[in-house]
Amino acid sequence: MNEYDTHTIQSELVAGGHQLVESPADANLVILNTCAIRGKPVEKVNSLLGELRKERRSGRDLTIALMGCLAQLEEGQELARRFGVDILIGPGAITDIVPAIRSLDEGAETFSSLDFQPGLDTHLTPAPSSLSGFLTIMRGCNHHCTYCIVPSTRGPEVSRPVEIIMREVEAMRDAGVQEIYLLGQNVNSYGLGDPGLPSFAELLRLVASSGIPRVKFTTSHPMNFSSDIVDAIAETQNICNYIHLPVQSGSNRVLRRMAREYRRDRYLAIVDEIRAKIDDVVISTDIIVGFPGESDDDFEATLSLYDEAQFDHAFTFIYSARPGTPSHRHFEDMPREIKTERLKRLIERQKAWAQTSNQRFLDREVRVLFKDMARDGDYVVGHSDQNHTVLVPKEQVLRLGLYRVRVDHVTPHTLYGHVAGSRPEAIPLMMAS
Ligand code: SAH
Ligand code: SF4
Asked: What DSSP designation does 142 have?
């Protein structure tokens, strides 16, 4: 989400006559587009702001803007005051960046905008000059998970109009984009409660019908993850067989305390349906360890759910008590050592299943998008339809695009392979390098 917002901010700046520079050292204005989901990113902003203030004190003429989720919170506003931030803009008002600069140029001391502006839904972001593009289909969140700051920072759910989404899709397709990532906190709530909008399953089919070779989406919420979505993925060739479906915990007691609206059995039933209907599907999840009050038995329930679901991949987090959330207000955090010990055990489980899962692809062909020449030693890095990181010897990829790659070797994190056949499946000439 933040990356898409950053792109929108960049487009606004360029359209407003400003110039982007490669390095913050060359900038007159530095924008920190922040995340506030856990304590760690907040600490990082704190130290970056400290460095910027130091430079300013040593004479550099610099305007500092704090944008994104942290700007929306009292915690961020306090940082802004402490470090002398000039521009404070929340995630619901990102298109205010150009007016903010103008206002400072006209003599204002500071600029602040923290509203959720309706115009953001219809704002058209120019297609990126990349083979892969993000596209926000909805903003905000109507859930109230007790650990999460997002509903406070991003406001209630708003689905963007389908015509605007499709215009963006077509603009990206015409610019040669090979992969579109549909984004939202809970994409499968798209259109809920608005009879004028398609359902998420219908939207998926519509976006896929544009002819974009790859359509991916994130994040799905187990609530409202209905069979029509599974069918749309199973029946549509260019909707990728990759589903990120955060479970957070395998214990019903913890799920209740987190205020997640499903229980273990329902979650596992969705996984069963997905695996039964979609060939070669890859399922990933998010798990939080050390939620307040999580007992040994609760944690064991998470491990056993992991084994039942046989996740192909998981993003694992230590619970971070975020000021302003119900769990921070009402529950006591547990000792760090217990949390890190549990995280270690969970990561071991994750690696073992990832290795098993990746072995399924050994000696087979996968379709890989190389969207830039990112290198890892002697290899170029790309991503498969199912979102695997795939490494191929660098001399085999001379132009960007989609390739068929034969997998020779796997680790829990990576598929290693070689290009099968000498020609990429599709070379968008406009962007070939
Ligand atoms: N809307 C998505 C998740 C968005 S946040 C969903 O509900 O599935 C991404 C992930 O960050 C969450 O899935 C959760 O695992 C993690 N997360 C959110 N708040 C957290 C906190 N306070 N501490 C640790 N992890 C957290
Ligand atoms: Fe946060 Fe829950 Fe909303 Fe996801 S669904 S953004 S975890 S409140």
From this structure: -
Q: In this structure, what are the phi and psi dihedrals at residue 185, rounded to the nearest 5 degrees?
A: -65, -35
List the domain boundaries for the chain. Answer: 2-115, 119-359, 365-419
Q: Which residues contact 140 (CB under 8 A, 6 or more apart)?
A: 116, 151, 154, 155, 156, 157, 158, 185
CA torsion sign, 71 to 76 to 77 to 80? Answer: negative
Predicted pLDDT of residue 17: 86
Distance 144 CA to ligand 2 centre (A): 7
β-pair type (401-410, 389-393) = unpaired
| CB count in 10 Å sphere of residue 358 | 21
Q: Looking at ligand 2, which atom is closest to the CA of residue 142?
A: 3
Superfamily of domain 365-419: Nucleic acid-binding proteins (2.40.50.140)
- The bound ligand whose nearest atom lies closest to the alpha carbon of 142 is 2
CATH superfamily of 119-359: tm_1862 like domain (3.80.30.20)
Residue 202 has a pLDDT of 97
Give pLDDT, residue 137: 95
**Contact predicate 275/281, CB 8 Å:** yes
* Closest-lying ligand 2 atom to the alpha carbon of residue 185: 6
* Residue 141, ligand 2, Cβ within 6 A: yes
Task: Give start and end residues of each alpha helix (H) in 90-246.
Answer: 97-105, 150-154, 162-174, 200-208, 227-235
User: For 35-176, where are the E strands, in sequence order?
Assistant: 63-68, 87-89, 111-113, 132-136, 138-139, 158-159
Residue 253, both tokens: 């007691």
The arrangement of secondary structure in 2-115, i.e. its CATH architecture, is 3-Layer(aba) Sandwich (3.40)
Q: What is the reported pLDDT for 120?
A: 76
- Can you tell me whether residue 39 is helix, strand or coil? helix
Given a contact cutoff of 8 angstroms between Cβ atoms, the answer to whether 420 and 405 are in contact is yes
- Give the pLDDT of residue 430: 41
Q: What are phi and psi of 356, to 5 degrees?
A: -60, -45
Residue 411's pLDDT is: 97
Q: Which of the residues in the chain have pLDDT under 50?
A: 422, 427-433
